[in-house]
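Justification of computing resources. Each target in the renewal requires a structure prediction run like the one illustrated here; the chain below, 121 residues long, is used simply to show the kind of job we budget for.
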Amino acid sequence: MTDAKTIARDYIDLWNETDAKRRGSLMASQWTNEATYVDPLASVAGPDEIGAYIGGVHQRFPDFRFALLGEPDGHGDHVRFSWSLGPAGGEAPIEGSDVVTTSDGRIAAVIGFLDKVPQPA
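Resulting structure tokens:
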């Protein structure tokens, strides 16, 4: 059984890492080399593409932070959790839920969903 809380916490820490080199190091230790990531805005594979996508989120939303919402849960090699993205200390305008598949305790695939997004004015 994968430790859902550890996987979710490490995942959020990775998404909050703004230094590309440090982010790459975290990915190398926590994700498989063949990992895939898909959400409504992207479909990327491998540490370089996934890391670049995360970097793009930091560029688009400077000073925003990810936070876990509620408690992660899981079974077997699967973990699901919800998160928010917003300014530190402020209301988060973006929320989502992710389902992670692991292999030998490392992230192998992520399917992300956007649950709350700002509506254009």
